[in-house]
Specification:
By secondary structure, this protein is mostly helical. It is built from 22 helices and no strands. Helix 8 packs across helix 9, helix 10 (210-230) packs antiparallel against helix 11 and helix 13 (294-328) packs antiparallel against helix 14 (339-348).
């Protein structure tokens, strides 16, 4: 068994155990896992050989990005599409160029190598940003912008990294080649992602067996990534698009059978991959720093400080420039009382995380000429140290939000209104079902109907019916089946109404999805009772 595989296995188990313990305590897992990996890297025992960069990219990064996309909402992203796209594309390119320029100036690295470092660190991390934003109790619109940016900018940043590494590996490349490669990577990546998402959506919709259907979704990221890369596209961008497409299709149909199982499976996989990614970053810090000479180590420290400052300044300038343009266009959003303060939070929300770490790992080991990739260890060292520093700075987001008095969303009234609309839809469906049963000559008795009205929990339904029908087992069984079918029909009515409110009335997915999962669970419970 290879030592690289052993390293991956031991790191995976160790990381998950530590992450599970941290989750029980309610702590963020990012910094503790990096610290645990660092300690293991310093220890005289334990694994230290990381697998080939391509294995890391395909085995860890691809499914991690896909899982993040599945947990995101196309509709929520569409509502904040303008700022998300501006940040995810414009800011990534601006940050890549800014970091590349400061790296070239401070450390005198070749331009292509400097731009590769910029592309590694330009994207914010979806895991880190999401966890930090939710702990800080930021407004949902702001969270949607930050999550959307950190998801979409993975594709932009890693596409830019692909172009930069091609230039560094090949030795030279013209601006025309850069433009062609970048455009091809984006267009092919989006195309492969849309096609893959459509295929998976169709299979999930028509599959009668959830096991192979959900198994396909689990292996899909690997196939999508490889397919897009073979076609000269961006594999990561294809994965993001496919994940968003599948998530939207799964959450747009009442009674989507695989929705609950898929959500549970990917929640587990994403948790494992996040823990492993943070742990690998920490594990590699001592080894990477140990390979540097004293001069290179000093250069890495100065470059790290310069890059962190550059990232903060570049993001602040870009965000407030975007805010200024928004004010000039007299957008209604700009008139909001907290708009300026929310912009300050957005400018400070620049945490980097495992995506940048794994992207750094993915840099090739050698050039086309067979020489070692120039300054690869320096890029890795700076990337890891920047990740740690930005994660530490991210912990100040909550206190900053409280200091700026950013209001917390209160969805209580909205949820109560939605629950009332769902109950109304279910009761209308109940009345329709009772009329249909009466016309068929098999009416549901009044008390059973009242039970459905009061409480649709299956345990109460079965207990009530069996108690009253113990003398007529066959009749009782028939009545139970009728009640279950009516109850399922009522749940479908609630699902339909919830999806209608989301699609037509603009109900946010952050409210709709938890309610939809609750209805899915209720439907599955009813279906199991019939079987």
């Amino acid at each position: 068994m290879s030592s690289a595989f052993t390293t991956l296995a031991i790191c995976g188990v160790t990381a998950v155990v530590i992450a599970a313990f941290l989750r029980q305590l309610g702590w963020s897992m990012s910094l503790p896992l990096i610290g645990a990996g660092l300690l293991l890297g310093l220890a005289p025992f334990g694994p230290n050989e990381v697998p080939d960069p391509e294995i890391i990219l395909v085995a860890v990064l691809a499914p991690l990005v896909f899982g993040e996309a599945l947990g995101s909402s196309y509709l929520d992203l569409r509502r904040v599409a303008r700022p998300v796209l501006v940040l995810a594309i414009g800011l990534v390119i601006f940050s890549t160029l800014a970091v590349g320029a400061i790296t070239y100036w401070v450390a005198a690295l070749p331009v292509a190598v400097a731009m590769a470092l910029g592309a590694v660190l330009a994207p914010t991390d979806a895991v880190s940003v999401s966890n930090t934003a939710k702990r800080a109790s930021l407004p949902k619109r702001l969270v949607s912008i930050l999550e959307g940016e950190s998801l979409v900018n993975d594709g932009t940043g890693l596409t830019a990294l692909k172009v930069a590494t091609v230039a560094a590996v090949a030795g030279s490349i013209t601006m025309t080649d850069v433009a062609i490669d970048f455009s091809l990577a984006v267009v092919v990546g989006v195309g492969v992602g849309l096609f893959s998402g459509w295929v998976m959506g169709r299979l999930l919709r028509h599959s009668q067996d959830l096991v192979p259907a959900n198994s396909l979704v689990i292996v899909a990221p690997f196939l999508i990534y490889i397919g897009a890369e073979v076609a000269q596209g961006s594999g990561i961008l294809a994965i993001v698009v496919a994940g968003l497409f599948v998530a939207h299709r799964q959450n747009s149909e009442p009674g989507a059978a695989g929705r609950v199982q898929s959500a549970v499976v990917w929640r587990h996989l994403t948790f494992i991959l996040q823990a492993l990614a943070f742990f690998l970053v920490g594990l590699q810090i001592p080894e990477v720093l140990g390979r540097l000479t004293n001069y290179e180590l000093e250069k890495a420290l100065w470059l790290t400080l310069a890059v962190v400052l550059t990232l903060i300044i570049a993001r602040t300038v870009f965000v407030f420039g975007m805010v200024g343009v928004t004010r000039l266009t007299k957008s209604p959003i700009a008139q909001h009382a907290t708009f300026g303060r929310e912009a300050a939070i957005m400018a400070w929300s620049g945490a980097r995380g495992p995506i940048s770490g794994l992207a750094a790992f993915s840099i090739p080991l050698v050039t086309l000429a067979g020489d070692p990739f120039p300054y690869r260890d320096l890029i890795l060292a700076v990337s890891f140290m920047v990740i740690v520093i930005t994660l530490i700075l991210a912990e100040t987001l909550g206190p900053l939000a409280r200091m700026l008095k950013i209001p917390v969303d209160d969805d209580t009234d909205e949820i109560i209104r939605v629950q009332g609309s769902l109950a109304k839809a279910a009761l209308i469906r109940l009345d329709t079902a009772l009329e249909e049963l009466a016309q068929e000559g098999t009416p549901l008795n009044a008390e059973a109907a009242e039970t459905l009205r009061r409480d649709r929990e299956i345990r109460l339904l079965r207990a009530s019916t069996i108690t009253e029908s113990s003398t007529a087992p066959m009749t009782a069984e028939l009545e139970i089946t009728q009640m279950l079918n009516v109850a399922i029909s009522m749940v479908h009515a609630e699902q339909e109404e919830l999806i209608r409110m989301r699609d037509s009335d603009g109900l946010p997915d952050s409210i709709a999805r938890p309610l939809l999962r609750e209805l899915d669970s209720r439907e599955q419970s009813l279906v199991r009772q019939i079987r």
